[in-house]
Input
Amino acid sequence: MNDLTILFADRKKTGIGKCLYQQIYEYIRDEIRKGKLPIGEKLPSTRSLAEYLQVARSTVDAAYGQLVAEGYLEARPCRGYFVSPVEGLLAISPDVSDEKIPSDIVPGGKEEGTFPEYDFSPHAISLKDFPFATWKKITKNILVDANSEMFALGEPQGDYALRETIARYLHSSRGVNCRPEQVIVGAGNDYLFMLLEKILGRHVPIAMEEPTYKRAYRVFQSFAYEIQAIPMDESGMDVERLRETKARIAYVMPSHQYPTGVVMPIGRRMELLKWASEKEDRYIIEDDYDSEFRYRGKPIPALQAQDAGGRVIYMGTFSKSIAPAIRVGYMVLPLRLVRTYQESCGFYASTVSRIDQRILNEFIRDGYFERYLNKMRKIYRGRHDFLLGEMACFEKEFVISGENAGLHILLTSRSQIPEKDLIGAAAGAGVKLYGITEACMEQATQSHMPFAGTVLLGYGALEEQELKEGIGRIKKAWSAWL
Amino acid sequence: MNDLTILFADRKKTGIGKCLYQQIYEYIRDEIRKGKLPIGEKLPSTRSLAEYLQVARSTVDAAYGQLVAEGYLEARPCRGYFVSPVEGLLAISPDVSDEKIPSDIVPGGKEEGTFPEYDFSPHAISLKDFPFATWKKITKNILVDANSEMFALGEPQGDYALRETIARYLHSSRGVNCRPEQVIVGAGNDYLFMLLEKILGRHVPIAMEEPTYKRAYRVFQSFAYEIQAIPMDESGMDVERLRETKARIAYVMPSHQYPTGVVMPIGRRMELLKWASEKEDRYIIEDDYDSEFRYRGKPIPALQAQDAGGRVIYMGTFSKSIAPAIRVGYMVLPLRLVRTYQESCGFYASTVSRIDQRILNEFIRDGYFERYLNKMRKIYRGRHDFLLGEMACFEKEFVISGENAGLHILLTSRSQIPEKDLIGAAAGAGVKLYGITEACMEQATQSHMPFAGTVLLGYGALEEQELKEGIGRIKKAWSAWL
Output
């Protein structure tokens, strides 16, 4: 608050005849324009500024409201008002660096824009049901016991106890065959990919399913990997097409492909494993990102469970199954890659704090994770079933696919209504849908792919009432096509 | 149907306790795997198998459904279930990997061996005085407030509030000029180096001081960087020698070089900055790893504080000043590298959990960090002074250097007693000392360097009584030379 009150100090003396609201509004706006109030700066609360200026609080409220409306400020619930990133404004910090922050440098990283009322994001998950109380209890207990050893640096691969717990969990829930020695714990999958680059080498030709998980694609692209987009058919990555490339690595999501929802049948799995076994340095990266959520039948075992030749690198994360803030993912390396890892980057310090590792270990080991997964599976299944029911009205015009697992469903237009028309119409009704082309690597082939005119409807973060209302709005918006 | 019912005949008799659905599923799956149910074979209808086995039809439905989902069976509308063609199935491995863990794969990562009674490790720090109670209190309060937003994924660069706090702290304590937009928070320096590789590019020729911080050297080596070892003189990296190389990056520790303890004077700093400014893509990495601990005079400002041209990448860590388990380091990028960062890897998810970021933010913001640093500075200064006093007896034979800052002191033999003899004799008396050659990159030049016959005595983790006893033992062990 200091800066602003200092800025206002002069003003207070020279106060001119304009209405107070206008004065406050213009003053703050100009300070932002000049860069004296830098992007991200928190403003004093309306109450304290009103007290300081000795004006009615409603006057300050009105000024702030105007600034929010014009995009100079943003209001963050329970936190207050902050200077927005405004393109083209020169944000100069007076007392610190006088270099200018170019307008293309995003201060936060969060995208700005209007928020849709119903966001069917396929990546959103529900955090409301997370057992915060349990997590807090475990944390508290661990901190009570915490000694200086807990604050010392742990093992690079992750604490052995946690790796044992993960290996046991993966074996029982996913059929993964591994020893704790093969497990590497790291702060999220992007970091684990960075380690994989060190292990697998540079400029590696890598095959990815088309469409695929775009985040992994961007990471591989940032590694300057030669990426081969291999078309999907109804069984997953087309291994014949894979053979035509010189790819050494195949990145796949056999349990529930993103975004198509295709489950790779055992036959295709064996073909893929056979491909890998044919050359010395071929590997498969199995990204098992949301395998915890399957609503019909048993979970599909991991591809790694069938890997007799040590060719599958298995990756998983707790970001989807516990919470994104829990920056813990893991990968299971084939034994010979464990050796490469230890030689090439086994000395890199662990990226996960020991305290977090211990909390996570107890959360899984003591059964809370299993219980939470069961609860979430039930909740997500409920939403999935409800959404499918609501979507019945689309069946004539759309093919529904990708159901029974994961957190999203696909709608494909039978009459090839362009994806952008579908999304645009929904957006007009306050509903955000996601097009499958966002998950496509090669823009050129879009129109030829079997998923043309396809939108994704994620339901992880939407409750039944929201699903109902959202679908109702889509129905209206699309009425010309239905 | 015949085959399968015959196959089931045995099974029916020996039926074990597993749930029926699981039994049927596993049985059919195993028969397919073993090839006993050939490809294309039609299975009995769910109704007839249910009757035959005297189980509910839904049980058989579920088992078939699972087998279809996994690709063992295929359902043909109006015709029934058939065994899918599966390539290479017979090669499937038994349920658990019986591959042995080769003996060269270290399960833990911790080195075994006998522990010396007095370990003068230059990397050890004291954790006894860490304000665990405060840390726990902050954690507890944060968890009380914790809501689902805290468990959502934060910004890739780190939470803005923490970056603001770090920028403010660096400005006041180290003179660093930066905006929160330039700060990147990451899980430890090894991770931040990995990001730097993405930002600075590959195969970069990099100059390092000889001797240097070996951990950074190993990391750069793992990047296949062309490392140029530049000799140190009493002012730090020899810039004339640096000019003879084609290095684009210079990695330096100007405030307290590791291991020599040299503080780079302002003249050398300006020379180094000038070198960087002469070509478009030259940068200096300033690793300010232990600048918090300086016992005489004011802290030396960071090199970054004098950098007018945006050429210094400033790195720091809380691992040394708070605790190694707090996996949080940070770097401050020049503005144009912020842009490169955002383009090349700005989308990599943050490696530090939001909860940890928030704890750390409050710990610093609310003054606990400053207080803790003051306390530790006093403790370390006490140990430093005490150790210097105890070491007076070495002055005739040894040059003492690197004092007044950091957590270790150097002893250099005036009569060139080999380092290994010094260490060996001490080890015989239960004292572990560290040779400077451990910090050398080029083994060949060891004997020519000004630090030949030099050992490091770290005192961070040793109390006065231990320092006294340790030095007493060294004195005895070295009595022939003193």
About this structure: Chain A touches chain B through 103 residues (CB under 8 Å).
